Amino acid sequence: MAASVQLVLVIHNHQPVGNFDHVIHEACDKAYLPFLRMLLDFPGVRMGLHTSGCLLEWLQLRRPEYFELVRELLSRGQLELLGGGMQEPILPVIPQTDAHQQLASLQAYLSEHFGDWATGMWTPERVWEPQMAQICGSYYRYTLLDDFHFEGNALPEDIQSGYFSTEFEGQGLKLLPISQKLRYTLPFRPVQETFDYLRELMEASAEPPLVVFGDDGEKFGVWPDTYEWVYEKGWLRDFFSALQENSSWVRLQLPAEMLAQRQPAGRVFIPCRSYKEMGEWARLDPDSPADSAPGHWRSFLAKYPEIYDFYRRMCSVSRRLSVMAGEADGREYAQARAALQRAQCNCAYWHGVFGGVYLNYLRAALTGNLLEAEQLCNSMDAAAALDTPEQASRRRIQQASPWQHEGLSDLLAGGTNLQGQPGQLRAVDGGGVYARLPFSGARLRALDDNWGELQLDASPELLQQLAAGGKSDFLLEDAGRLCAWFDGAHGLCLRRLDYYPTRFCWTDVLARRREHYHHKVEDASTHAAGEHESIHDRVLLKEEGLEQRLLVDPHQRVSFVSCFGQVDSPQQFLLRQESGGPPQLRWRDYGLSGALELHSGSKAALSCVLEHGPFTLRKSAALASFGALELQVRLESGELPPGSGLFWLEFNLTVLTDTATDRWLEADGARQSLSAGSDLPAVRNVALVDQWQQARLELSLAGPARLLSYPVYTVSSSEGGFEKTYQGTCIMLGYQPDALREGISLRLDIGALGQD
Description:
It is a single chain. The chain is α+β, with helices and mostly antiparallel strands. The protein is 30% helix and 26% strand. The chain contains 23 helices and 29 strands. Strands 18, 19, 20, 21, 22, 23, 24, 25, 26, 27, 28 and 29 form a twelve-stranded antiparallel beta sheet that branches. Strands 1, 2, 3, 8 and 9 form a five-stranded parallel beta sheet that branches. Helix 16 runs antiparallel to helix 17.
């Protein structure tokens, strides 16, 4: 039997970019500050502390007492600070250049404010991929992963006998296994249970076992009912007291101390993995059996294509900045890099019990930071246009590498058109296509799957080759105002509409889909709650009737999509949406087949012919003056089927909330409720008004249309229970089918609100 147990404790504090101030203040008052103050009362209790960079920046400005407590505990030797990515990104999925800069940024921040370099790091959501050893090992000696990571990759008896080493291409990193047992007992079970478990391990081991705890600081006061249990009923004081009283056999050590005294138990090579619950949440099938293979974190980018769209955009901005490195203005470049880092904060990219993909304000915060980075890139591009011929030549050489993307050889004319002459190609980076059209300062971009960009002064023939080559994503962009992303492969639908003056995406509406926990909502009435349940086991409905909102959308919530159908009421329409709806034109794969046309001249314009058996439709979009979009649908040929009902154009738009008094829907000047929906027989003007951002999105119709609108709600899980979240408002404009013969036209414009 061993004489003692080595115990390493690590607390991880984090709040996502864009979270509400009052939420973070509450976390400070209920968890972060009382925990550190309690620690001061027990000088024999020592642990590691990781605070994400985005939270540190917030605390520095609003709760500086946190910094004071950390500095005092450091001076007493009770804390060891851990680093990581500055804005808490999922490190292996962002561009490696950005991962290195994220890691270096937090190291520099900790050194500046606390006077020391961190030797260990926190891995966000413990998402591990093998290359992490190389990326993170360049800055840190160790990180923590769950013992679940090591199952099948280390001998079972070794997982509790120490830590491990790993490497990638010769760069090493130490891995400390987090005990799942302690994650589930601290702080939810009586203190004695933890010490009974530690004694069992000690008695079963010949050498002192190593036990590592690492988990969220929010569970010590912020999670439901934990403040009363942890502080008011004294769990934390009892736990710290027990650690000091049992110090003769529970040797509490800082992580770096333990590493200095103990050799690795072995070498391991961990596959792509996260903690156990994350593997369950990342499965693409929400109804998969509990014993199914765990999902890969990157599966969230397939599960939520709306987030994948944003992810691709983020990677595009990253590449633009990488190209500019060393050539751009230092101040603007640093600002753009910082904004890009904030846009990489992980929380809005995924969802389980945690993760904020359903929280529209978190997605809006990432969008705002990404649009800031894009604006700064555009500013630096404009400055680069003033380069001397020698500077421009050097920039082209740096940017013209390498051309290895399928489908571009016909556009490259043998790869020789890299001189920047009219009608020829000028490389910006190694992938994709970027078409600059000569009109009014606006531009059209065509992007491949890698979101790389290539500039060209394009002839109509070259643009047609581009369309025939299968490039389906096109951005109509008016520098300084808006950027409209159209998907040519899905009927020229409008996927994103970004407005630069307020750095806001008006079309960021997440579709409703089945989640793995929805069965708990359906069965909530039969669930019997246990005392101090873990957050993974709790079933708490924040409002009644949530089971009636477990709806699934048949398509993504994009805009400028169309269908036929007769609808008697908004509720009937809503129900039809769930059952597949009337005959569908919406969200289907039309392909391109040369049917997509690109036009230049006084306007940037796209048009697409949609084949539907007995008839074809032509949809078009043009970027007009002052950043407005002109949209049209008309019958191209054939006859419409009789009895098809009205022809509907669908727009999914958002102002982030349906209840605030400063945001509303407006129809012909009359306010309509965003939370209740509306049904009006004939309107000519529809607008979403947002006084919070002092902006207004307006749809001006050439002819009257029936208006149906309804709020889109999702049901999701959070630390506090199951909740309804407003994603946006669906606006349906209904026309008599005969209107298609002349063409249905409307204008979409975004502008600042006038003074009331």
